[in-house]
Amino acid sequence: MKKTLMPLLLAVIPAFILSGCKAKKSAGSSKPVTLTVWESDKGPDDFINQAGEEYTKKHPNITIKYVHVELGDAAGQIALDGPAGVGPDVFAAPHDKLGELVSGGHVLATVNPDEVKKNALAACSQALTYNGSMYGYPVAAETYALFYNKALIKENEVPKTWDELAGFAKKFNAANSGKYGFVMDVGNAYYTIIFTTKEGNRLFGPSGTDTTSTNINSPSSIQGMKFFQSLRSSLNVPAQDLTTSVADAAFAGGKAAMHITGPWNIKNFKDAGIDFGVAPLPSLPGDKTPCASFSGTRAMFVSAYTDHPEEAAAFAAFLMTPEMQQLRFKVTGAMPAIDTKVDSPYIPGFLQQLNYAFPMPSIPQMGAYWDAMNSASKNIWDGQDVKAQLDACNSAILGK
To answer: Is the dihedral of CA 318, 320, 324, 327 positive or negative?
Structure first.
């Protein structure tokens, strides 16, 4: 399934392909409408503001009001603010929150889903389908890969396996005081899931819908997380000191040769003056292909509590047009969710990784996964028993 993404992303959309998704005014209405849109800051905010200005030029009666709510917080906040009448009309959320949003009655179904599916990347439309219905409008495709600083590691030295990476890091650390061979957020389940994926092991099974078994404490997961724990000898820093912000700052400051992160950091690292490249993730011991990563779809959802469902859906669809997808890439570096070409030396690395990525499950049980696996990852990194931690993680997710 993932192998279809590369040709799709490299194709150029004809100008008419998204005609069915283009925003339209409410029939016969010119009444002033203000749409409140929740999105993250540090890039997505600029995109929404610029897109809003363009939309108002086309629809003078509609004003777009940006409100800062982080992507990961939106699902929880809509459950509180929506019923209270102070929520958004449109909000951004990751697709793994879909089951939670639908089960809670917080989002409306996609308008013209067949048209949206026709124009979106297949993985994105699949990610936004729940119990046979589509919800939301995909605006970005995501996964993560291995960033490398060309000033600190030669391109022909970029490791293909995790064993090679560990070996390089040990030598690099010894020869470069105050710098690191590699960094990553070791307490973030978004990244540490990669170590559980050997031999096709997948969270909640191959389809991501098995609610009877998480597979997070399977033999493959235990073996993989034991290897993850062994990496501590190549990055001897406690988990509490290896957060996303710390790892990002280390790479942006030229203090790390390699870092695992996503396209959202392309602009940040370019602005920091780092000459970097992007490669697929190394393979796990015994495997020959890059280890599997989570793939994600960032979507704009129409709130079930909006007073302007037609206008909200039209604006969300507008964000999928080629012009807006190109603007989003220019502003944020995010990979488009539609078949449109972008000019970037970094995207090929992500495209290669997408061949081995799998969608984050969107069943409601994913809501419990994050805290449980975040905690297990931190504890494992800091030396606690791997099996005990993964068993506890499994129990927390399934509510046992």
So the answer is: positive
Query: CA separation (Å) from 93 to 65, 218, 373, 389?
Result: 17, 29, 20, 29
179/173 Cα distance (integer angstroms): 6
Contact status, residue 163 vs residue 228, Cβ threshold 8 Å: no
Q: How many CA atoms lie within 13 A of 364 on its CB side?
A: 9
Burial of 13 (0-12, 13-18, 19+ CB in 10 A): middle
Amino acid identity, position 290: P
pLDDT of 307 reads 98
Closest among 381, 135, 119, 83 to 127, alpha carbons compared: 135
Q: How many helices (H) and strands (E) does the chain have?
A: 16, 11
C-alpha torsion sign, points 191, 192, 193, 196: positive
Task: Check pLDDT > 90 for residue 385.
Answer: yes
CA distance 138 to 353: 20
Q: Alpha carbon 128 to chain centroid distance?
A: 13
Residue 108 DSSP class: P
Range in 244-248, 271-275, 339-343 with the lowest mean pLDDT: 339-343
Tell me the average pLDDT across 201-228.
95
- The yes-or-no verdict on residue 342 having pLDDT over 50 is yes
Torsion of CA 51, 55, 61, 62, to 10 degrees: -40
Q: Per the structure block, which two tokens stand in for 266?
A: 């392309």
Let me know: does 131 contact 292? Beta carbons within 8 Å: no
Q: Tell which residue, 359, 338, 354, has the closest CA to residue 121.
A: 338
Give whole-number Cα distances, 209 to 83, 178, 201, in Å: 29, 44, 14
Burial class (CB in 10 A: 0-12, 13-18, 19+), 269: buried
DSSP state of 129: E
Structural tokens at position 130: 């729940």
pLDDT exceeds 70 at position 7: no
What's the Cα-to-Cα distance from 181 to each of 151, 176, 189, 242, 320, rounded to whole Å? 12, 9, 21, 14, 39
Phi and psi (nearest 5°) for 130? -135, 125
From residue 145, alpha-carbon distances to 98, 167, 389 in Å are 24, 19, 26
